[in-house]
Amino acid sequence: MEKREWPLFVYGGLSSCIAELSTFPIDTTKTRLQVQGQLDGQFNKIKYRGMVDAFCQIYKQEGFLSLYSGISPALIRQCTYGSIKFGTYYTLKQATNEYLQVTEDVAVNFGCAVCAGIISASIANPTDVLKVRLQALGRDKTGIFLNTNVFKCFRYIYVHEGIRGLWKGVGPTSQRAAIIAAVELPVYDYCKYKLMDIFGNHILNHFISSLIASFGSAVASNPIDVIRTRLMNQKHNRNTEVVQQHIYRGSIDCLLKTVKYEGVKALYKGFIPTFVRMGPWNIIFFVIYERLKTI
């Protein structure tokens, strides 16, 4: 790797962690909204009426810190997923553009983004599973997850569900990452390129471009995000003598059962917090990322 390329990975991870810390409570409300109605005795009741109601109930019943349940694996995830995703995308795009002698080609950007999304999400999947489990549990649950942390959660999954439990939902996770990257990164770069004549390489350009990219990626990715969240949150004890029937046997089964029992609208559960989070997340990320690139 050339000397000028490795900082892209560092900048991507650092910017991702700052954006994650700033918007994580919204992500927690999104997870709670997505798992409610799930075919599971613990989560099948509809408890929250929307993002604001979820935020208020979590804050009142579980405390402010519960909004940051799962922040440890989330930051670990961004150090890996964020670094690999953005570093791979911009490095691969730069190399491809130089080889083909093109500038901001949509097809090139799309292909590079899909590759970066799949690779990074597959590697970082265990941290995503831990994050979802801790977010869904909160801080007032009883039983085996009482006062749990990322290490206890990891140990429980590994002991009771095996190494495969840490890669639960890796299929839809990779698909979601590919969709988000394929929409978010090329749209951002395209908007930024087109707005250069108006705003130049200014923070206002980065703000508008990231906001447009966020809306597109939220619309495209929310259905598969619901599926992968439910698969990750689904528990299975491999040590029980009685074979436990999976609630969802896979991505397609989860999709069909969700639509059958809850309707098509269920695929857009958590859309508002998804977009409300994606907007600020991408704005914070790209503004910081662009500043770091000028160093």
From TrEMBL:
SUPFAM superfamilies for the chain: Mitochondrial carrier
Solcar repeats: 7-95, 104-194, 201-295
Gene3D superfamilies found in the cross-reference section: Mitochondrial carrier domain
Subcellular location: Mitochondrion inner membrane
Main location group: mitochondrion
Any single GO CC term annotated in Swiss-Prot or TrEMBL for this entry: mitochondrial inner membrane
GO biological process, one term: transmembrane transport
Keywords: Membrane, Mitochondrion, Mitochondrion inner membrane, Repeat, Transmembrane, Transmembrane helix, Transport
InterPro entries: MCP (IPR002067), MCP_dom_sf (IPR023395), MCP_transmembrane (IPR018108), Mito_Metabolite_Transporter (IPR050391)
Bilayer topology term: Multi-pass membrane protein
Family: Belongs to the mitochondrial carrier (TC 2.A.29) family.
Protein name in the entry: Mitochondrial uncoupling protein Bmcp
